[in-house]
Amino acid sequence: MSGVGPAAPSQSVSGAAPGVPGGRLRALLERPRAGGTPGSAGASAAAGAERCDLCAEQVPESHRHLLDVQESSVLCACGPCALLFGQSTAGGRHYKLLPDRRARLDGFRIDAMLWARLRVPVGLAFFVRDGASGEVGVGYPSPLGVTRSAVEPEVWEELTRGYPELAELADDVEALLVHRSDGADEHWIVPLDDCYRLAAVVRTHWRGLSGGPEVREHLDAFFAGLAGRSAKSRTSGTAVLPSTADEPRSQHG
To answer: Residue 193: which of 179, 205, 175 has the closest Cα?
Structure first.
């Protein structure tokens, strides 16, 4: 698959970037890929019902997540805990509720020169700004997990000048998600847990050296799902960020 592949040897590889997910998200990332140890996937599925990582209450399939800033981990949250830590001061510097907006950036473009300056060697990546340092990190899924590296501040500032909506990214918990592999042209602002779900898709369905048609189909389904959830958000008052120009913009390096 063009634009997505094994992590470069010079980069660090881990189960998540910039944090490590907890609960079901962590299980998704760490479960063996298809064709792995017999019975291991079944053992993971049998681990029990999903529960809140804070109070241990059972949670439904669709539930919110918190970022543990100190531990750099994503936690499953029940409704009451999500409501509590959704208050701006309730979590202090420890917990942040991951937002639920999914906004397609219509007209957003990053040309090949600027993409090269961002030093992302693949076509599928997400960018997150650290709330403590202000630095921006990039993670890109691979069959080994998520590779992560830092983005040069001046390059990110240049991108933000061209696209001021990026300044609205919530520190630590929202990401700019870019999919430009195999001719794709997807640019989204998404909650961080969506990036972990995407990493699980790549890890689980990758085949051989190039990824194969299965992972492409699942990536297409993932982004179609984003569009559907974004449309649902619009009906509940969360707007997709519009383009500020009639024609697609191209940010040059």
So the answer is: 175
Choose among 139, 115, 136, 116: nearest CA to 126: 139
Q: Which residue ranges make up each domain of the chain?
A: 12-235
Are the C-beta atoms of 202 and 110 separated by less than 8 Å?
no
CA 160 to chain CA centroid, Å, is 19
3-state helix, strand, coil split of the chain in percent (to 5) is 35, 25, 45
SS3 238: coil
DSSP character string of 17-56: SSSEE-HHHHHHHHSPPTTSSTTHHHHHHTT-S-B-TTT-
Q: What is the pLDDT of residues 5-16, one digit of tens each?
A: 554 433 443 433
- Write down the number of H helices and E strands in the chain: 7, 11
Q: 161 Cβ partners below 8 Å, 6+ apart?
A: none
Give tens-digit pLDDT for 233-249.
Answer: 554 444 333 332 333 33
3-state SS, residue 212: helix
pTM listed for this prediction: 0.75
- DSSP conformation class of 57: -
| Helix H or strand E encompassing 129 | strand 124-129
Between CA 90 and CA 179 the distance in angstroms is 35
Beta partners for residue 74, in sequence order: 21, 67
